[in-house]
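#structure-requests
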Amino acid sequence: MSGLVAIIDYGSGNLRSAEKAVARAVRDGGLNNEVAVTSDADVVRKAEHIVLPGVGAFADCMNGLRALPGMIDVLSDAVQRRGVPFLGICVGMQLMATRGLEHGSHEGLGWIEGDVVRLAPCDAALKIPHMGWNNLRALAAHPVIAHLSALAEPHAYFVHSFHLRAANARDVLADTDYGGAVTAVAGRDNMIGTQFHPEKSQDVGLQLLQNFVRWRP
């Protein structure tokens, strides 16, 4: 298996950690994929898999993505028209939503219907931002998260204050409990996103990244 895995650099991601984790997942899986961090839309156009990381405020990340010449058009063509497998991480996943409600209302990519809203745990003792390890609960069968069902307590590392409130329950593939259900994995068709950071989630995250690179939806 070969082909380019493009990790988009738009000034809003933990890029080197993501690059190292994807490269390790490729190596450990015996795959031959090239992994590249890029801000060049022409490079992304040639990719067989696309990863969009993200750290920070929704609007800042969206503006950073828009600032890359041609990137939104290339992403729309690759992901929505040609069906290239896409993985959004943290805010990169949130940008898939209709809009983000952090510091006002801001338009997202609109690939998954729903809003990105502030966490509102029912337990006042739970702090925001949510930082640390939480168990994952798979809600639907999906090749990228198939390994979760085989683990007694699959857990992953979260750092966030907002999460995706999807309009369609079927778009939520896994959740976690933080004073109530919080979207942990969302997706449909050739798109998937994680609120947690797979690059910081040890074996669970590395297996997810390997599954993603193998994925041919």
